[in-house]
């Protein structure tokens, strides 16, 4: 499903929470995860998809994940993630 970035909250210099508005309500329980897809130019050998645990409350209408960024070298996915702006759309799988 498509999700639209609402905002990014920096928890620390190298840790950020990405909050998305889903195109339809998402049902999940605490501790579940999803596969997130960001299509970007020149993906590294790991590709355009990553798995992240959902960090938002199941009662929240937004869905979010929190991740840590390397101080020196990041994957192409994390670089694309850092470049996202509010209003940008990415893909999210059904929670598992």
Report on the architecture of this protein.
This protein is mainly beta and 96 residues long. 8% of the residues lie in helices and 41% in strands. The protein has one helix and six strands; from the N terminus they run βββββαβ. It has one helix at residues 76-83, and strands at 2-12, 15-22, 33-37, 49-53, 63-68, 89-92. A six-stranded antiparallel β-sheet has the order 4-3-6-1-2-5, with no helix packed on it. The mean pLDDT is 95.
Give the fraction of residues assigned to helices: under 10%
The secondary structure category is mainly beta
Order of helices and strands: EEEEEHE
* Total number of beta strands: 6
Main attributes of the structure:
41% strand, single chain, 96 residues, mainly beta, six-stranded antiparallel β-sheet, 1 helix
Compact description:
With 96 residues, the chain is mainly β. It has 1 helix and 6 strands, in the order βββββαβ.
Helix-strand blueprint:
Blueprint (H helix, E strand, L loop, with lengths): L1 E11 L2 E8 L10 E5 L11 E5 L9 E6 L7 H8 L5 E4 L4
Antiparallel strand pairs: 1-2, 1-6, 2-5, 3-4, 3-6
């Amino acid at each position: 499903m498509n999700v639209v970035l609402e905002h990014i909250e920096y928890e620390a210099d190298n840790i950020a929470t990405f909050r998305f508005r889903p195109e339809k309500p998402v049902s999940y329980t605490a501790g579940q995860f999803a596969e997130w897809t960001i299509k970007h130019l020149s993906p590294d050998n790991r590709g355009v998809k990553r798995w992240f645990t959902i960090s938002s409350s199941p009662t929240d209408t937004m869905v979010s994940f929190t991740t840590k960024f390397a101080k020196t070298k990041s994957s192409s996915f994390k670089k694309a993630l850092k470049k996202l702006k509010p209003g940008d759309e990415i893909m999210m799988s059904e929670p598992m």
